[in-house]
Write a structure and sequence with these properties.
By secondary structure, this protein is an alpha/beta fold. Helix content is 39%, strand content 15%. The chain has helices spanning 11-15, 24-36, 58-68, 79-84, 89-101, 132-140, 153-156, 165-179, 188-201, 247-258, 278-285, 299-307, 323-330, 341-347, 359-370, 387-397, and strands spanning 6-9, 43-49, 52-56, 104-106, 121-124, 144-149, 182-185, 207-209, 234-238, 266-270, 291-294, 311-314, 335-338, 352-354. Strand 10 (266-270), helix 11 and strand 11 form a beta-alpha-beta unit.
Length: 398
């Protein structure tokens, strides 16, 4: 039966106001918002704030899209935001703007009798606002609750998460087990792992496997930092600097390469500093030979940089999907990555697979790709998942 309306939770996307770049999960939420805005089905958005949940009409959802794309920058704080967002005025201005557009502002328990139409499909795509009270209230309101689980890394690899992340994520997964009507999985590999956790929690909701699409911005060389030297062979690692992404391995590799006496390729680290340990940050602050950090690049600049790279380097210890590797493949850029099951499933034999702790193999592969005679045999065209296929799989399977 077709949904009477779509309700997309945009709590995460609104929370990103003031950040220079969007994360992979942010981009997924934005892709879904952009798609739902093209449909004729009635659309609402839900945004949880410290002063209650905002229920937004289609125009409010479109305002969130405009904020995420930089087309709208709210400039007014209301009294509520002055009191609740003192440390984050950009988010406060966004919430103040949306409060003026909301059709309702409700405590969580009141969602059960709020204005959202019975029979609507609720989509939580970013792990935010994912709690038992919210899910229970929406169920009481007669909504079908569909949740995307990107990965279970906080439970599977707690060492690569913040100290408070495993317990917080476990509570979210418990809410999914108890209340979700269906779960969106990005891969079969991810489905198996997530459903193992859900089974231990007592209930496994029906699953929909729908790989994400890939959208690559047109390359915009003019958006690259002035004076950036791209005349020598270079490699790119793309993503937030945090332990799971294994930037330390590449710093070890570049230290090794610098000692060989061979021409040293460049390594561009594209992404902001996350919660990386003090040791890694100290190494970066020491400006290792051949290594340059490039935080805050636009999407067009990233595409331009990737397009000229000898390869994308992706030595992650764990990934739920690995969008940077798929974006590189979409540009026919070679990929050197960790030998993870999720990459094998999506990218099959496209990348060069290496162990994430094998400095020698990474060094030798990078040296080979730095030479022109070792560069032409990688980067063949790869068939990749498309957004339309993803949306269709989810909306028909729900």
């Amino acid at each position: 039966m077709a949904a009477s309306a779509h309700v997309i939770d945009l709590t995460r996307l609104v929370s990103r106001q003031g950040h220079r770049t969007l994360t992979g999960i942010d981009r997924v939420e934005l892709a879904w918002l952009s798609h739902l805005l093209t449909l004729d089905t009635p659309l609402y958005a839900l945004v949880r704030t410290p002063a209650g949940c905002l229920v937004l009409p289609r125009d409010g959802a479109r305002a969130v899209q405009d904020m995420a794309l930089g087309r709208l920058v709210p400039d007014r704080l209301d009294l509520i935001s002055r009191l609740t967002r003192r440390g984050n005025p950009a988010r406060g201005r966004a919430e103040a703007h949306l409060r003026r557009m909301a059709v309702a502002r409700l405590p969580v328990w009141a969602l059960a009798r709020g204005p959202l139409p019975k029979g609507a499909l609720y989509l939580n795509l970013g792990h935010s606002n994912l709690s038992a009270p919210v899910m229970a209230a929406l169920g009481q309101a007669g909504l079908r609750r569909l949740v995307m689980i990107h990965d279970c890394i906080p439970l599977d690899h707690p060492a690569y998460s913040r100290a408070d992340a495993p317990a917080a994520f476990a509570a979210k997964l418990a809410a999914v087990s108890a209340h979700a009507d269906a779960v969106i999985h990005l891969t079969r590999t991810g489905q198996a792992g997530t459903e193992g956790h859900l089974a231990r929690l007592g209930r496994v909701p029906p699953g929909i496997v729908a790989p994400l699409g890939v959208t690559v911005a047109p390359p915009d060389p003019s958006a690259l930092p002035p004076g950036l030297d791209l005349t020598h062979p270079y490699f790119v690692i793309l993503g937030t600097i945090e332990p799971r992404k294994n930037h330390g391995l590449l710093l070890d590799v570049w230290d090794h390469l610098a000692k060989t006496g061979d021409p040293l390729p460049r390594l561009f680290i594209v992404g902001g500093r996350g919660w990386a340990g003090a040791d890694l940050l100290a190494r970066l602050d020491g400006r290792p030979a051949g290594v340059t950090e490039l935080p805050g690049l636009t999407d067009g600049a990233v595409s331009a940089l990737l397009s000229g790279a000898r390869a994308l380097l992706f030595p992650s210890h764990a990934e739920g999907f690995g969008l940077p590797a798929i974006e590189a493949a979409a540009l026919s850029v070679p990929v050197i990555c960790s030998d993870l099951a999720v990459f094998r499933e999506i990218l099959t034999d496209y990348p060069v697979y290496l162990r994430p702790d094998d400095i020698y193999s990474w060094s030798e592969t990078i040296k080979r790709l730095s030479r022109s005679d070792g560069y032409a045999d990688l980067g063949a065209r790869q068939v990749l998942p498309q957004w339309e296929e993803h949306f269709r799989a989810v909306l028909t399977g729900a």
